[in-house]
Specification:
The complex is a heterodimer of chains A (about 110) and B (about 110). Chain A is an all-beta fold. In chain A, about 0% of the residues lie in helices and about 55% in strands. Chain A is built from no helices and 11 strands. The termini of chain A are far apart. In chain B, strand 4 and strand 5 form a beta hairpin. Chain B is built from no helices and 11 strands. Chain B is mainly β. In chain B, the strands form 2 sheets. In chain B, strands 2, 4, 5, 9, 10 and 11 form a 6-stranded mixed beta sheet that branches. Chain B has a 5-stranded antiparallel beta sheet with strand order 1-3-8-7-6, with no helix packed on it. Helices cover about 0% and strands about 60% of the residues of chain B. Classes of the chains: A mainly beta (about 110), B mainly beta (about 110). At the A-B interface, strand 5 and strand 10 of A face strand 4, strand 9 and strand 10 of B.
Chain lengths: ~110, ~110
């Protein structure tokens, strides 16, 4: 079966712009979680969506938002980009909420210049 | 909140055994996961412990002691392809059962 698909793989944006990242989970998975990965901070939890509802949210500013559609695909949006937002953004899907059996996508590498 | 600590880097020799430790503090422990991540790739699931003891899966084993807030990942018969980052993650039922990751341990396997 197809894995977790994240698009785009690479992205370069300018400070102040906004960006939308997409994640298509494994078929049948209803939970999608987003993480930011940087060399200094490791994997930091952004938010989790389950059946179109945000279930959990990490400690990120309001510039970071997300949503989930009825087909379980999820998007995350970052507005007013800052240099510090440069990171690998990983999406993980699972059947149930709560981190069970996470399958990660290959991520979107965002560079803010 | 949660605090998860693991060594930043380790080096080992091909064919040897290496143990990667992880300590954690959490209010509602509900499972510990180990993931492997090769550079530029997605993390992949290695193991899951929720009860004390050792879980063995081929060359990889993972141990958990809940009373000590301690886990380790044991890699035997190291191969060059085992060079990767190893991520320890804890699930906390008091935090919506979400996973919190440690900073990861970068393992370099040398010939």
């Amino acid at each position: 079966k197809a894995g977790v698909t994240q698009t785009p793989r690479y992205l370069i944006k300018t400070r102040g712009q906004q960006v939308t990242l997409s994640c298509s989970p494994i078929s049948g998975h209803r939970s999608v979680s987003w993480y930011q990965q940087t060399p200094g901070q490791g994997l930091q939890f952004l938010f989790e969506y389950f059946s179109e509802t945000q279930r959990n949210k990490g400690n990120f500013p309001g510039r970071f938002s997300g949503r989930q559609f009825s087909n379980s695909r999820s998007e995350m949006n970052v507005s007013t980009l800052e240099l510090g937002d440069s990171a690998l953004y990983l999406c993980a899907s699972s059947l149930l909420t709560g981190g069970s059996g996470y399958t990660f996508g290959s991520g979107t590498r965002l560079t803010v210049v | 909140g949660q605090n998860i600590d693991q060594p930043t880097e380790m080096t080992a020799t091909e064919g040897a055994i290496v143990q990667i430790n992880c300590t954690y503090q959490t209010s509602g422990f509900n499972g510990l996961f180990w993931y492997q991540q090769h550079a530029g790739e997605a993390p992949t699931f290695l193991s899951y412990n929720v009860l004390d003891g050792l879980e063995e899966k081929g060359r990889f084993s993972s141990f958990l002691s809940r009373s000590k807030g301690y886990s380790y990942l044991l890699l035997k018969e190291l191969q060059m392809k085992d060079s990767a980052s190893y991520l320890c993650a804890v699930r906390d039922e008091n935090a919506g059962n979400m996973l919190t990751f440690g900073g990861g341990t970068r393992l370099m396997v040398k010939p």
